[in-house]
Design a protein that fits this description.
Helix content is 75%, strand content 0%. The chain is mostly helical and 371 residues long. Helix 6 packs antiparallel against helix 7 and helix 7 runs antiparallel to helix 11. The radius of gyration is 21 Å and the shape is globular.
């Protein structure tokens, strides 16, 4: 059994967690700062993120579900029924093509943006919960940490959404906010700062008392990688690409920063869980490969992710080299297929990582020893 599997109090082991769950925010932040210093790096870094992390993190979901013999048997209804999540986008695209009205299509895209961020927040919450379980945090500490996570991340998202002039333009709001709007933004920023300082004091007291250091450090990493760096360090300088054609082009650097951290976290949790799962029984499958030979499995996922790069080019996401313009019929069709993949990913994720409904996950996530 690998040493990292035997270590207790960690998801995948001390070094493993240090890279995937704590170091991921540092890596994401360093890439974000690099794009600010040298904007010419943004497009190659964005393409590398899609190929090396975003595509593989989607494929890891399939490795945990459709390519796992046990999951196919136990979750058959879920795996078939979840494919219906491709339908809403196709309906919105059909309405747009038949009527020429964008309302349904834009509503679909707006919902996709919110669900995307919610998914990232929930992943951070799940990892935080694991570290709090390892630290035996009290119910009060859990409530305060969870409250700070949700409020700080969503408040940061809201401030960026309303504070950046490009976002206001996309939303149809005034380019220059009225005095009351500016006051609300400043008040929200001050309130978020005070909340963060209060939580830091609370965390410092816990750490000084010899408990809660790991959850506090993870929460700081989650806040920095998911909100502070994308929304308040990189975001204000967007767009960094020249001649942005779509709303997505406007915020490519911010999306990449959050996506790098999210992708590393997700690959880490899948590999750690599968590593423990396949110490308990033999199976020849890609799921077993993710646990027993993760480097080889990752290489295969990167190779397949070449198709993911093509999908992004077909939906008009790249400001250079797009196969179809985003506003074209084909570009919009590939766009809804792209979001269908992510809707499917989001939904599967919120169903397959439920510790209470799946007791075997307690062992796979390092919460208890093997029976």
């Amino acid at each position: 059994m690998p040493a990292s599997v035997r270590e207790t109090g960690w998801i995948g082991g001390r070094r493993f967690d240090g890279f995937f769950f704590f170091g991921s925010s540092l890596i994401a932040g360093a890439l974000g700062l690099a794009t600010l210093a040298w904007p010419v790096l943004l497009l190659p870094l964005w393409a590398a993120w899609l190929l090396l992390l975003d595509g593989p993190h989607l494929l890891a979901t399939f490795g945990r579900t459709y390519l796992d013999t046990r999951e196919r048997k136990e979750q058959a209804r879920l795996l078939v029924g979840s494919l219906l999540l491709f339908v809403p986008g196709l309906v919105a695209w059909g309405v747009l093509r038949l009527t020429g009205e964008r309302a349904a299509f834009d509503l679909f895209l707006g919902f996709a943006t919110l669900w995307s961020f919610h998914h990232a927040v929930r992943q951070n919450y799940g990892l935080l919960s694991l570290y709090e379980s390892f630290a035996k945090a009290s119910p009060r500490e859990r409530r305060l940490d969870t409250g700070f996570l949700y409020v700080s991340l969503w408040a940061s998202f809201g401030l960026f959404l309303l504070g950046h002039p490009e976002n206001r333009r996309i939303l149809g709001l005034p380019a220059e906010l009225p005095a009351l709007g500016r006051l609300a933004l400043v008040g929200g920023g001050v309130a978020l700062t005070l909340l963060s300082l209060a939580w830091l004091v609370f965390a410092a007291v816990r750490i000084r008392q010899g408990r809660g250091a790991r959850p506090a450090l993870f929460l700081l990493c989650a806040a920095c990688g998911s909100a502070v760096i994308p929304f308040f360090v990189v975001g204000p300088f967007e767009p960094l690409v020249q001649g942005p054609q779509t709303p997505e082009h406007m915020f490519m650097a911010a999306a990449m920063v959050g996506g790098v951290m999210h992708g590393l976290q997700y690959l880490g949790i899948v590999v750690a869980a599968n590593r423990r799962r396949f110490t308990r029984y033999e199976e020849r499958s890609f799921a077993a490969m993710l646990g027993r030979a993760p480097v080889a499995a990752y290489g295969l996922m990167v190779a397949v992710s070449g198709l993911y790069l093509l999908l992004n080019s077909a939906r008009g996401a790249s400001p250079v080299g797009s196969i179809f313009p985003e506003a074209s019929t084909s570009g919009q069709l590939f766009l809804v297929f792209y979001w269908g993949l992510f809707f499917h990913h989001y939904y599967l994720d919120q169903r397959i990582w439920r510790v209470r409904q799946q007791p075997s996950l307690r062992y796979e996530l390092g919460l208890e020893e093997a029976a």
